[in-house]
Amino acid sequence: MEPFEALREAGRIASKVRDTTLAEIEPGIKVEYICDLVNQRVAEMGGKMAFPCNVDIDHVAAHYCAPINDKTVIPERSLVKLDVGVHVDGYIADTAKTVSFDPSYDYLVEAATAGLDAAIQTIRPGVRANEIGAAIEDAIRSHGAKPIRNLTGHKLARYVVHAGKSIPNVNGHDRHLINEGDVYAIEPFAVPSTADGLVTDGPPSNIYRMQKRRSVKGTAKKMQKYIQAEYRTLPFASRWVMRKFSSDKGVEAFQELLYAKSIMSYPQLIESSHAKVAQAEHSVIVTEDGCEVTTA
Ligand code: MN
Ligand code: MN
Predict the structure, then answer these.
(1) pLDDT for 180 beyond 90
(2) Which of 114, 140, 223, 230 is the most core-located residue (most Cβ within 10 A)?
(3) Which domains does the chain have, with CATH numbers?
């Protein structure tokens, strides 16, 4: 498949799975059920997971994924982000939406969505990244909220989710130029205007990535080979590996790979004042006079 067609196909799958799954999220439902549903639907549509789906509740801005046998359920009156990544032949779509179970936080969802819309209107060849950040920040502030300033959108490359260049969510010093044919994920996060508007590292996310091939033996060796073949440079869930290696030896082998720095763990990203966070994200291809949203 031609690269742009693969990007569009990944986008079609990711947006469909995002919307059908988001519609089923409600208080009392298990997070592990939601994560499994996303995996199943992506596979049914012929895509592969570009990263484990994130189900981020309230002040968790990013990177929570269910471990195996997770007991976490969606709380009453919560704000829930569903972030889905799909790839087709390595070409990635990354998209997220937020559902609010407390009307007093609806404005955060509207603010994040307005920030994303403003960015999509602004991005085109020749624009500088901080101009897009300024458009996002203005739109979010006009809704009585503020952006999280140390989370950004990011360039997408084949088999690479964070390919170097960023799209900031605030005005600032990132003046790199946007070029035709670039592929970006744009993802504003909105918090109440009284919040810090910053994230810090929290507990482990249950999301991992291959770091370097190490000389390990036995089950750990088999597991390392499996991870490298299945996920390459892309993030994966411990849950996926534990289901494939479902014995005590599997648990030990996973720890061994972590200890040997064969794989690395991502932390959850927590809003530092524990404020509720809303997120909106689309992936776009920069065209001659604007952009094409692949995850609309
Ligand atoms: Mn995302
Ligand atoms: Mn992203």
Answers:
(1) yes
(2) 140
(3) 3-201+274-293 (3.90.230.10), 202-268 (1.10.10.10)
Q: Distance, CA 55 to ligand 2 centroid (Å)? A: 13
Q: Which two tokens stand for residue 19?
A: 């919307």
**Ligand 2 geometric centre to CA of 69 (Å):** 26
Over residues 142-177, the pLDDT tens digits come to 999 999 999 999 999 999 999 989 999 999 999 999
Q: Which two tokens stand for residue 35?
A: 């994560």
Torsion of CA 250, 251, 257, 261, to 10 degrees: 160
Rounded mean pLDDT of 276-296? 98
**Ligand that comes closest to the CA of residue 186:** 2
The candidate with the shortest Cα–Cα distance to 127, out of 186, 188, 189, is 186
220 CA distance to ligand 2 middle (Å) = 30
| Residues classed as catalytic | 83, 94, 154, 162, 187, 281
In the chain, the percentage of residues whose pLDDT exceeds 70 is 100
Ligand with minimal distance to 51 CA: 1
Rounded to the nearest angstrom, the distance between the alpha carbon of 217 and the centre of ligand 1 is 35
Encode 209-246: b = buried (16+ Cβ within 10 Å), e = exposed. Answer: bbeeeeebeebbbbbbeebeeebeebbbbbbbbbeebe
How many Cβ atoms sit within 10 Å of the Cβ of residue 40? 12
Strand-pair partners of 169: none
- What pLDDT sits at residue 24? 97
Q: What is the rounded average pLDDT of the residues 244-249?
A: 91
In angstroms and rounded to an integer, the radius of gyration of the C-alpha atoms of the chain is 19
Cα(107)–Cα(27) distance, integer angstroms: 20
Ligand nearest to the CA of 52: 1
Residue 247 CA to ligand 1 center (angstroms) comes to 32
